[in-house]
Design goal:
The chain has twelve helices and four strands; from the N terminus they run H-H-E-E-H-H-H-H-H-H-H-E-E-H-H-H. It is mainly alpha-helical and about 325 residues long.
């Protein structure tokens, strides 16, 4: 679901980034109000969980791959505004350091996975939980919310892909950017997500939610070392297991490189050309592209990338915590 650069027009990217600005602003304001200085590192741990879940690729129908996101999970544990910030920071890190998702497309990817996914997933969860008043109802909310959260986000991405050939064409009618219309992009994105990726999202969400409730029922990510130790152990285990994401071969739908899209069969036939917006588009070099570390085996490079991403995300939010003022400090 990570939209690469040059699949969306620059104007589309600008619109999506502009749409995210007030969402980020409101989320930051809410987080400042709701999350104390001592609890701020929780967002870093949440971002690390999200980052790791997105590294576990699974095979999808049609020969593509997909992954869980964890947006609904974080929204349930820390609130949707905190989830928006945590997932956004994880997505920005993925784009800038690992080339996972486009740099110009950061606004679109954050809109889909850091806004639509956690907010829709959370409010579905909350509606079911509030109308059942039981532990079974709460878990029903977790299941339904996480399933529909990721699928609604996938639908948004499919629409963003599908409107490109309607809006941006050259003189002979060829698409300048993503060449697949809505009639192709929606089923290509939604069928695999409805059948597989949504189920994977549910499994990760339910298992981690149950684990966190068991080890820290009163406070999800407590800063007390004894209480946070099990969660940090979980993160360490996910880092070690991250190479399992390499077992899923193939490329996620809509994430092909410009050198291969002409021969990709999607919608029943090969495209037969490379959109000019892709051949002449912007290309950003990243330090560790595709989580591959030069000179080391692929699986070990994946672990290094996972460890680096986790450390950076936790450090970022610890820095934010160190400069954040509590309400008492602000009043004084």
């Amino acid at each position: 679901m990570h939209i690469p650069d040059n699949y969306l027009s620059p104007s589309t990217c600008a619109v999506m980034a502009t749409a995210m600005v007030p969402i980020w602003a409101i989320s930051i304001k809410k987080v400042k109000k709701e999350i104390s200085k001592a609890k701020m590192p929780q967002l870093g741990i949440a971002a690390a969980l999200c980052f790791l879940l997105m590294m576990f690729n699974v095979p999808l129908p049609g020969g593509t791959t997909g992954h869980a996101v964890g947006g609904t999970l974080i929204a349930i544990l820390l609130g949707p505004y905190s989830a928006c910030i945590s997932v956004s920071v994880a997505l920005i890190l993925q784009a800038l350091l690992f080339g996972d998702g486009g740099v110009l497309a950061i606004g679109a990817n954050c809109f889909n996975m850091a806004f639509v996914l956690p907010f829709f997933g959370y409010f579905i969860y909350k509606f079911i939980k509030d109308h059942t008043k039981s532990s079974k109802g709460e878990y029903a909310g977790v299941i339904v919310g996480s399933y529909f959260g990721i699928n609604i986000a996938a639908l948004c991405a499919a629409i963003e892909f599908g409107i490109q050939p309607l809006l941006f064409k050259n003189a002979v009618g060829q698409a300048l950017y993503c060449p697949y219309p809505l009639s192709v992009s929606i089923p290509a994105m939604m069928i695999p997500h409805l059948l597989v990726a949504g189920v994977v999202e549910v499994l990760f969400t339910v298992l981690i939610f149950a684990f966190v409730k068991r080890v820290s029922p009163d406070m999800v990510f407590d800063n007390d070392k004894k209480k946070s130790k099990p969660i940090l152990i979980l993160i360490a285990a996910l880092v070690c297991l991250s190479p399992l994401g390499l077992l899923a071969t193939g490329t996620a739908w809509g994430e092909w490189g410009g050198d291969e899209i002409a021969s990709i069969v999607s919608g029943g036939s090969a495209l037969g050309y490379t959109p000019s917006g892709m051949t002449s588009g912007i290309s950003f070099s990243t330090l560790i592209p595709d989580y591959a570390v030069s000179g080391v085996p692929e699986f070990f490079g994946y672990i290094i990338s996972a460890l680096l991403g986790v450390d950076l995300l936790i450090i970022v939010f610890k820095i934010i915590s160190s400069i954040k003022k509590d309400k008492a400090d602000q009043v004084g």
